[in-house]
Amino acid sequence: MSLSSERLDFLIAHYVSGSLPEPARALVGAHLEMRASAAGFARTLEEMAGDALHDGESLAVSARDRRLKEIFRSAPMPSGPRGMGAASKFPASLRAYVGVDLPDIPWKLSLPGLRRHVLEKSSEVEASLLWARPGRALPRHRHRGLELTLVLEGEFHDQQGRFRKGDVAIADETVQHRPIAGRRGPCICFLVLFAPIALSGPPFRLIGDIIGI
Q1: pLDDT of 41-91, one tens digit each?
Q2: Which among 81, 88, 83 is positioned nearest to 103, based on CA atoms?
Q3: How would you class 110 by CB atoms within 10 Å of its CB: exposed for 0-12, middle for 13-18, buried for 19 or more?
Q4: Is the pTM of this model over 0.85?
Q5: CA distance 120 to 55
Q6: DSSP structure class, residue 186
Q7: Which residues of the chain have pLDDT under 70?
Q8: What domains, with CATH codes, occur in the chain?
Q9: Calpha distance 134→113 (Å, rounded)
Q10: DSSP letters spanning 54-113
Q11: Which of 7, 26, 136, 156 has its CA 20 to 30 A from that of 61?
Q12: Beta strands across the sheet bearing 197-199
């Protein structure tokens, strides 16, 4: 199991327990609507939690990996993603948080080839939607806290891998990256930041990324 997958498992577990802040909960809820396997995993966690409460038993931390393997083997697979019908471009969880659908987002130019719409900003969390033209690279940056990115349309890649529609990318203080949108079409993402980012890398490359060349 990769570190990214393990972090996503913990994120889904916190979603099931109801302990995520609203923007992160909307992000994970949308991911579950877009990924049938993730939705099955979440339902299995809910069933396990219910069984544990009923039996009065707790899951030993040392048994976590073994139980996760059991979950993946036994998780029921839904017939298909939910909440992405023709009537809405956003998953239901995200649309409820945003308040409008994708065609009605009031985008603002952030940098050449990048548009952004800030949904929430405080000292603790920032949530926003980001639109990137095909092939557009974001300036290289490092993180001072957790960053969650859900791909809504298109795809992007960085040194962690390639992330497509419905995927969640997770970055923290250990990650320094330069995400690049795929070339087949615009990339639209929902981002939740729990700390500001800091630009990094060679000055000439940063200048190129900022102006979009």
Answers
A1: 999 888 876 655 445 544 444 444 554 444 444 444 433 344 444 467 899
A2: 88
A3: middle
A4: no
A5: 41
A6: -
A7: 1-4, 49-87, 201-213
A8: 3-85 (no CATH), 95-211 (2.60.120.10)
A9: 8
A10: HHT----GGGHHHHHHHHHHHPPPPSS--S--TT-SS-HHHHHHHSS-GGG---EEEETT
A11: 26
A12: 176-177, 141-143, 197-199
Reading the block at residue 211, the tokens are 């102006």
Helix axes 22-34, 36-55, angle to 10 degrees: 120
User: Residue 128: which of 112, 152, 144, 145 has the closest Cα?
Assistant: 152
Rg, C-alpha atoms of the chain? 18
Distance (Å, whole) CA 56 – CA 137: 51
How far is 20 from 15, CA to CA, in rounded Å? 6
Q: CB under 8 Å, gap of 24 or more: what pairs does 112-117 form?
A: 112/211, 112/212, 113/212, 114/138, 114/212
